[in-house]
Amino acid sequence: MRKAAGPGILQLDVSTDEEWQQLLSHPGLIVVDVYSDWSGPCAAMASTLRKIKIEAGDTVEYAIARNDDIADLQRFRGRSEPAWMFLQDGKMVNLMFGAHCPRLRKLLMDEIKRVQQAEAPKWRLNVHERAPEEEVRWQKQEAVRRALEEARRAKEEAERLEKYERFMEYMVVELCEETALVLYPWVFKDERGRPRDKLQRLTDGKCMAMRLKGKPPHPDWPVRYPHECPKRSEMKCPIRTIDDVENYLISIIMKEPPPLLQTGPVPMIRPTYDAPYMERHVYVYEPDPEVESDVRREHPVAWTPPQARSKVHVFKTLFPAYLEKAYPYEEPAPPVPLCAFKFEASKFGVVRDAYELHRDAIEHFGVFEFDRPPYARRLASSPGDFEKKVKYKTGIEVFVVIIRRVNEEAFLAFAGNEPFFVTEVDEKAQEMITEYFPEGAVDVIPLTPDEKEALYAEEEEFYEEEEEEEEYEENAYPFY
Fold this sequence. Notes:
Layout: E1 2-6, E2 9-14, H1 17-24, E3 29-35, H2 46-56, E4 60-66, E5 83-88, E6 91-97, H3 101-116, H4 132-174, E7 178-183, H5 200-203, E8 208-213, H6 244-254, H7 277-280, E9 283-285, E10 297-299, E11 302-303, H8 308-318, H9 320-326, E12 338-344, H10 348-357, E13 362-368, E14 378-380, H11 383-389, E15 398-404, H12 408-415, E16 421-423, H13 426-436, H14 449-476
Parallel strand pairs: 2-4, 3-4
Antiparallel strand pairs: 1-2, 3-5, 5-6, 7-8, 7-11, 9-10, 12-15, 12-16, 13-14, 13-15
Helix pairs in contact: 2-3, 8-9
Domain Thioredoxin: 14-99
Keywords: Coiled coil
Coiled coil: 137-164
């Protein structure tokens, strides 16, 4: 710790933990200017401190502490606002933020007076603790931080849920012709626990999971088959309804199977059962008499997904390799954000050149009579149409360009040509599409002055002929 010479004032310069501990061991009142290396100590207070030092004498000491390498002052790092810490006998007794000279002078004089009168401070804290004013500030900052963190988490959760729903929406359609059936180990044993067939060797103590491909349901099935979309080539659509296969399989194992189809001249004979399959093959677990908490339990013989969404999870868990190979899923890329520009008619040449260079980025282009939708009519939907089809140009036309921001080059090609309006906000650009390019709107080619004059002449001649006919009809029968 060394003394730094100032203009008429001596102050201690502290920059390490060892020097800081030495400072805390000093008796009496010490005012410490806490600063960071990148901002430096507060020079604006030098004259105020010099005057007080002359008035107070040895009652108060001054120090500057660089907080970058002092553990107790870590909480002050990164602040550009001056912090003034009042120490007395190694404890913090007051704290002030800011470079307000009158306030610092009053606070310092009050502390000097208190020390001279041997009065106790309002509070005494360890230097690494937060002062009351710090605590208030910290609580506000922490509330803001928590709010931002919650907003970030909510956004991430919304994005995750949206991604999950896109995946489920895709898979329930892809798997609409398939389902799964899980058979438990006791399916392959008879009532005495003996193997029913050779599969027992493969499934002893294990479940068997099977993928089942749907076939046309029995004619008695209530859902019409096949279930086709009107235009299958234009949109992805299931051959049947989403839960059709699950419902059909559940009806077979939970209820009586449908009658067999007649395929030959000899009637087919099918066995009859007193109860559905699930009721006939319930596995009963008898409790162990030596285990007091053991109870009698009944287990189902099989399980199948109750609906299409649970089926997707079954395939992800039991048949992940098959799912990835047969129905590969790629997360669709997010839509490219839109930007919008407006140009005056004098910019036609540069707008046309940018349009030709970045035609693939153009979402909408329109030339309007003036900038007041929907009253201003759209004259053209491309620079070429405006140049060739619009014969009479007034010079007050407005060019509206909506682009997809596929790259910065496309954006700068238009932004660098001095548009009188530009927005990079996607929502605003979407609003402009609704405003300037409503569905069903068409280009209107304006008439030249000569064409307008000829049209007005024809209209006047037409009205004159109508007036003559009306006068003739009125005078044809004067006695009425």
